[in-house]
Specification:
about 375 residues, alpha+beta, Rossmann fold, Jelly Rolls, 3 domains, 5-stranded parallel beta sheet, 8 helices
Length: about 375
């Protein structure tokens, strides 16, 4: 199957081609503004499906809107007609096609051209009026305010928000690509005369900005946003993709003493926290219990023993653990417990607690096992 993608080096084009390759599609014909124009002729002859994603968003002259969004669409369709190729054609339009501005008028003209082409040739035509699209590989300061904010906040640059109450309708690039591939397979999501990405997020500009600043702060606080919220998760993934290349890493605070160290790794608002504990040979840590806080211990290096005793009982329970055989040990409430390094090297333990540590309410009570 030969798949022609115009605008192949653009935001949607790059993401689409990457996923087509992931799904083992071959014969992808990539066409962009830097491609030799002569190739369009052969591509239009060979194509079994056309993703027409090329367009003009921010030209130097307003006339370029019509030249790029209408003119090139006409050239593409004329070339397909020249070869009698009536393969399906999918066009990436915009919700602005319904508005009375130069960009919207040019997109609407391209849509009308495609509709007429479908009626004339019988070809299957699919028009997607995309709202704001966000995600990785989008150019900041070009066609996405969300991505511009991601880039600027990640780089410590100022942003301008004229009206934080403005409501945006947004679609995430992975959802867009999934829908485009569904369309390729004849399973498009039709809504009236158009097609649409089924998952649309509605949120104010101010809320987006607040989330992005919280993402920046979360690296300093070793925290993590609420991933159960679908939009937050997608925005967080987008934000991380715009980090400066020399800022992927960030330091943690190691609490070090003669017994080893304890380091908080991740805190979450609703899923507790993860820490890394290092114990020196022969060292025992713990000897405390909790009312409600519960934990999971995973020794990933070294050997040791985790001991338990139910408060009020004399029975001691022992679990021997090793980095050679990974096993999660639950730490129930109401049991005093400790962990001892039985080896001759440092023992490394990943510890999860169901709640982030609160120094004002630690729920931790000393008691020897």
């Amino acid at each position: 199957m030969k798949i022609l993608v115009t605008g192949a080096q653009g935001f949607i084009g790059k993401n689409l081609i990457a996923e087509l390759s992931n799904q083992k599609y071959t014969g992808i014909l990539e066409y962009d503004k830097d491609t030799n124009p002569a190739l369009l002729d052969s591509y239009c002859q060979e194509a079994d499906f056309v993703f027409h994603l090329a367009g003009v968003n921010r030209p130097q002259e307003q006339s370029e809107f019509m030249e790029g969004n209408f003119g090139f669409t006409k050239t593409l369709l004329d070339t397909l007609k020249k070869h009698g190729n009536t393969c399906p054609v999918l066009v990436a339009s915009s919700t602005q096609a319904a508005l009375d501005n130069p960009y919207g008028k040019s997109k609407k003209a391209g849509e009308d051209l495609l509709v007429a082409y479908g009626r004339e040739t019988g070809a299957r035509v699919l028009i997607y009026r995309f709202p704001n699209v966000f995600g990785k590989w989008c150019r900041p300061n070009y066609n996405s305010a969300v991505v511009t904010f991601c880039h600027n906040i990640a780089h410590g640059l100022p942003i301008t928000v004229n009206d934080p109450s403005v409501v945006l309708s947004l679609v995430y690039i992975d959802d867009v690509v999934e829908e485009l591939i569904n369309a390729l397979q004849g399973k498009e999501n039709s809504v009236g005369d158009f097609c649409a990405v089924p998952v649309v997020h509605t949120i104010t500009l101010g809320e987006i900005v607040d989330l992005l600043y919280s993402f920046k702060k979360s690296r300093e606080e070793r925290s993590f946003p609420k991933m159960s919220d679908e939009f937050t998760s997608k925005l967080y993934s987008t934000y991380l993709s715009y980090l400066p290349k020399d800022k992927f890493g960030y330091p943690l605070t190691m609490n070090v003493d003669n017994r080893g160290s304890f380091t908080e790794f991740i805190k979450t608002p609703d899923r507790g926290q993860v820490s890394v504990n290092i114990s020196k040979p022969g060292i025992t840590k713990g000897n405390h219990w909790h009312h409600s806080k519960n934990e999971k211990f995973l020794v990933v290096s070294g050997t040791g023993v985790i001991r338990f005793r139910k408060v009020g009982s004399d029975e001691v329970i022992a679990y021997y653990v090793s980095g050679d055989k990974l096993e999660v040990i639950d730490i129930p409430t109401g049991y005093t417990h400790n962990i001892e390094n039985l080896g001759d090297t440092d023992m490394v333990t990943i510890m999860w607690a169901n709640e982030s540590f609160n120094p004002e309410k630690p729920d931790t009570y000393y008691l020897e096992v």
